[in-house]
Amino acid sequence: MKERLQKVLARAGIGSRRAAEEYIAAGRVMVDGCPVTRMGLQVDPELQQITFDGHPLSFPEEKVTVLLNKPAGYVTTMHDPQGRPLVGSLVKEPGLRLFPVGRLDLETEGALLLTNDGDLANRILHPRYEIKRTYQATVQGLPAASDLQSLRRGIELEGRRTWPAEIRTLRRRDGDCTLEVIIHEGRKRQVRKMFAAIGHPVLRLKRVAYGGLRLGDLASGAYRRLDPEDIRRIFQGGPAPG
Ligand code: URA
């Protein structure tokens, strides 16, 4: 795509557009080997070689983070030897290589972040930030209040105690019930293992919030780009009501 030369220089981090115009006027910019001093030349940085003081321009990749409502049946990896559908196939951001932040099980639905910002991904996953993950878990039967209390306090799972969890009942039905479960650990299949441990297997699991960032009314399989305010919400205490 063609753009004005001074805009391309600014995008490559050379300086402001005003500064770029001065560099052009000073003959420090070459396009396909020829010095360009004329303002406003339209160039295509994908197809043409542009240099500043003899150095080719490089463009820092735009940092993009998206929130996807992962449907059940999609794998949270970039590649699957079994050929199952990949979460990446739902995110159409040409030219950007977005990778999932953490994982959700094949059958788990809901909030999944994908980003090309490695530092942000590390901060989100680092236990130091204790980011709360909020799930809605539909489990078989009606767990006894005492069992829920032991899950809240923490139970032994594979030789390691779980951190305290917040659990409240959202809905009771014949044969199953739906609970809100808030944990800040990301152990593999943790919610499923916690409820299996008290004899109430998880029938359906959906992550509805990441810190204070809620999935909201995002349709299953849809995603949206996050803005800086959304990113701040991830690091905020708990999900806002609603
Ligand atoms: N806990 C689970 O059991 N599964 C998930 O996908 C996420 C949390």
Sequence-ordered SSE layout with sheet pairings:
Elements: E1 3-4, H1 5-11, H2 17-25, E2 29-31, E3 34-35, E4 42-43, E5 50-52, E6 55-56, E7 65-70, E8 99-100, E9 109-115, H3 118-125, E10 133-140, H4 145-153, E11 156-157, E12 160-161, E13 166-173, E14 176-183, H5 190-197, E15 202-210, E16 213-214, E17 223-225, H6 228-234
Helix pairs in contact: 1-2
The structure holds uracil.
How would you describe the overall organization of this protein?
Belongs to the pseudouridine synthase RsuA family. This is Pseudouridine synthase. Its EC number is 5.4.99.-. Residues 3-65 form the RNA-binding S4 domain. It holds the Pfam family S4. By secondary structure, this protein is of the alpha+beta class. A hairpin with a 2-residue loop joins β11 and β12. Strands 7, 8, 9, 10, 13, 14, 15, 16 and 17 form a 9-stranded mixed sheet that branches. The chain has helices at residues 5-11, 17-25, 118-125, 145-153, 190-197, 228-234; strands at residues 3-4, 29-31, 34-35, 42-43, 50-52, 55-56, 65-70, 99-100, 109-115, 133-140, 156-157, 160-161, 166-173, 176-183, 202-210, 213-214, 223-225. α1 (5-11) crosses α2 (17-25). It has 3 domains: 3-56, RNA-binding S4 domain (Structural Genomics Hypothetical 15.5 Kd Protein In mrcA-pckA Intergenic Region, Chain A); 65-127 and 215-234, Alpha-Beta Plaits (2-Layer Sandwich); 132-210, Alpha-L RNA-binding motif (Alpha-Beta Plaits), CATH 3.30.70.1560. The longest helix has 9 residues, at 17-25. It has 6 helices and 17 strands. Uracil (URA) binds next to α5.
